[in-house]
Amino acid sequence: xxxxxxxxxxxxxxxxxxxxxxxxxxxxxxxxxxxxxxxxxxxxxxxxxxxxxxxxxxxxxxxxxxxxxxxxxxxxxxxxxxxxxxxxxxxxxxxxxxxxxxxxxxxxxxxxxxxxxxxxxxxxxxxxxxxxxxxxxxxxxxxxxxxxxxxxxxxxxxxxxxxxxxxxxxxxxxxxxxxxxxxxxxxxxxxxxxxxxxxxxxxxxxxxxxxxxxxxxxxxxxxxxxxxxxxxxxxxxxxxxxxxxxxxxxxxxxxxxxxxxxxxxxxxx
Length: 269
Prior knowledge:
By secondary structure, this protein is α/β, with parallel strands linked by helices. The chain has two domains: 148 residues, Rossmann fold (3-Layer(aba) Sandwich), CATH 3.40.50.720; 107 residues, Dihydrodipicolinate Reductase, domain 2, CATH 3.30.360. Helices cover 34% and strands 24% of the residues. The chain contains nine helices and twelve strands. It has a seven-stranded parallel β-sheet with strand order 3-2-1-4-5-6-12, with helices on both faces. Strands 8-9-7-10-11 form a five-stranded mixed β-sheet, covered by helices on one side. The radius of gyration is 20 Å and the shape is elongated. The chain starts with 5 loop residues before the first strand and ends with a helix. 42% of the residues are buried.
């Protein structure tokens, strides 16, 4: 077991953190090497297995990422932009693979992540699932095939605790469609329409966000023109798909050179 790549999970007590811990612990291809929580958290110093409500597993939750990363080969990080930027710096020092599932980044945040990738493998995606990444490629191809008479809308739905909108996945899909059309998404997007907005801007990619209940994640890419519509859809019913994808990314990155990668690279799409 000690020969298997060691993986640290950040934000271990969170919704995705718990799922990631369980997924890595159950894997026969990796070992759970550490768990990180913020300073002052009730889990600090506790055995992770017990904190999760099960048997002790020998992994002690810590607020010292440098020590944990130094003893591992990868870190999987679904936290928040500010925390992820700091974790990226530490992962670079430790030369361990940094898998980033965090969403809600601004352009300045992404710029802040880049220097760390000169020293370590950095794999970032708004969504780690195989199905969503296939959908991204399909959205690009359909957008490329259809002219500007076809409007493009991305509709996404998530649970009521999600703090960012549009979702990282929705932005992935929008950027793929924009690439298919030959422009940068941020130059021609519409989001959060309200009131008397006027007619839809020709050629723009629109976004709508739904928040409610415990929806894991639903994404539609709608192509609409006079008389017909095409809808590409992905529905997630279990967060385990994201954890499995993140683990796949962490393992894939073990023999790669430092740099920035995404799930398209991991999946070879």
